[in-house]
Each structure stands twice: as C-alpha cells, then as structure tokens.
Amino acid sequence: MELWQRFKKPILAVGIIVAAIIIFAALKATKPQTPLKEVEERFWPIKVQTVSFGDVSPTLRSFGEIRAGREAELRAQVSGTVIAVHEDLGDGALVHAGDVLVTIDAFDYLATEKERHADLKEAEARLEEFKTMLAGEEKLLPVDQKQVTLAAREVERQRKLVKRKAVSKKSFDDAQTNLNDRKQKLLIREQSIARYKSQVIQAESSVEKAQTALSKAQRDVADTQLKAPFDGFLTQTDVTAGKQVSTSDRLGRLISLERLEVSFHVSEADYARLTRQNDLKGRNVTVHLRRGEKMLPFEAKVIRIDARVDAATGGRNVFAALSGLKLSTDLRPGLFVEVAIPDETYQNVVSLPAMAVHDNRYVYIVTDERLYQREVKVVVRDGDRVLVSDGLSADERVAVTRFAEMGTGVKVAVK
Question: At what angle do helices 169-223 and 107-163 cross, to 10 degrees?
Fold first, then answer.
C-alpha cells in the first residue's frame, strides 16, 4: 500500500500519456483521405503582333523654340513733337505694311521744303541764263572765224599788190591791222564761250545741290510719318502723343509674322542618320504647338544648319522657316514647340513596339502557345517603335507584352 501511494502520481501521468497516444493514433487512422489533384501548368496572357514587312518612313521628334527671323527697330528719323499715334499702338498690336504708326509735327520740315523748292528754281533759272548766253556766243563764233578768214585773204591780196606797187604801203598796213582786230575779236569770243561753259557747269552743279537739298527736305517731311515696313506685330513700344523725340530714338520693335523661324536641336547621331542619303537643308518639317489637348500643326522648311557642334550636347542647332502664316496665327517668338522631322525611307522592314525588343537584340516568338527567343537586327528607333530588318519571317507572331517570367518555353495565352 505504501508502495502504491509512493508511485501513484507517476503511474497516473504515464497512463494519461499512453491513453493520449492511443487516442491520437485512432483518430489519425480514421481520418478521411483527400485525393491529390494534378498541378496545372501556369500560363501568361499576352498580346502579339503579326510580322509584316514593308517600307517605313520614320519621323524624328525634337523640341524647339519660335524665333523672330525678321524684325525691325522702329526709330524716329526726324526730331520733333509727336502729334498722333496709331489707334492700336501698343505691345502685341497687329499692323500692316504702310500703316502710319507715329506722326511728328511737320511744320518746320514743310517750310524747309518750300525754301528748297525756291532754291532749286533759282538755280535752274541761272543755269538757263548761262546756257542761253553760251548758245548766243557759239552762234557768233562762226561769223568771227569767217571774218578772220576774209581779213587774212585781204592781207595776202594787199601783199601781192604792194609787190607790184599797185597800192600804197598804207593799204597793206590797214589790211594787216584789220586782220589783227578780227583775230582779237575771235579770241575774245572763244574766251567768252569757255567762260560760259564753265558757268554752265557750275550752274548745273548748283542745280544738283539744290535737287539733293530738296530731296532731303522732302524725305524729312515723309519721315515725320513713321510707317510699318512690313506686316507684323508690335512689341516694346515707347511713344505717346505729345512726346518730344529725337533722331534715332527707339519707339518700338516690329516682328514679321511671315518670317518666323523655329530653332531646334538634333543630336549628332540623329544628324548622321538624317543625312545618310540627302542633305537636311531644304527638307520640310512639321511644327506642332500644343493648345490644351490639341496639337496645332504648322509647315516649315529647314533653311540653315549651325556649322558648330554643341560641346555640351554633342549635337547641332537647326533652323526652319515657317510658312503660310497670317497675322491672326497664334505664334509668337519664345513659344516652345515640337518638331517632327521626316527620316529617309527604310525598305522591307518590320515596325514593332519598342517593348517587344529586349536588350535591343532579340524578341520572343509565339509558337504553339509558347515563347521562343529570336535574335533580330534593329535598324533604327522610331519614337516608341523600332524597325527590324533581319531575324523574322512574315506572319510570325511577336510577343509585345512584357512580364518578369519571360523565357523560352514559357506558356502563354494570346489575347
């Protein structure tokens, strides 16, 4: 009894454990078995593009800035008081060629013009007087020359008569004296003609000076009206009625809308690509201006290329002249635009989304709903697409969807 009391607790503990083991074994033996299911192979839904060869003319994209290809500084050509300005004068105002923008008081210039008119008439009258006198002297010159000739003959006749002693020596002397008088008159006539010719030349010079002075006075009168030299819009205007202006004071700037340019940058690699067959100069490009969700297109033509290569970017600046613009066109210098530059035509190539080409050298072909890697040759990148020339066959399906587990043999489902 004492032995039982001594080992009762350990015996009960062991009994409980044994009972628990027996119960667990019984439960496990009677547990219903779940039948094993066959594991299905996982597949990936993708999109594909069917290979089709053709000729493609890609477009390069660049960003540029609108610049003023032609502008004029509006400066006062004469000094005076501004008495009137164009009704729309101000920054941003649209004006046409010939519009009077500023009018300066022309009273003093009109008075000067009248004085120059009078000076010109006086010079012309003096010239006409000298020409008339010269013409009269020139008409009398042949008469004097004939008189000299007759007097010389008379002297010769008297010499012969004196030798024959048919006349006195005094008759010969009188004939000689008459000849000398005729020669003196002829000399005076010739000198008078030479003097009048010189006076005519001086008078003609005076007329030319008077005409020049009149032309300057007339131009000063015309310059009292500052006119727009071409169609465009105004900026940096600084003039009002009543303002005193001096010669060469800047009154504003006029920018021509017909000669707007776009300046954009082309990398050296793209430049080499664009010029591999033809020169870039003269090529038509399309300029896009964003207005909200809309892109407004404008036509332009490349007119020059900067000869210097940008040291920072390794590219070149290209300039294209915009065409077909009107005063109402919403383009201004300083606007940023997108420029589309047409590339040369690549023949017999496949255009694929850039996502379809991995490491710029291979794609995945879908055959029997599985992926297979294929090496390809990329010719050029066209925005978010690439052009492939070799490595593919017509009607093959190229995976254009990417996922992390892509690899040869992976099962896919084409959507």
Answer: 170
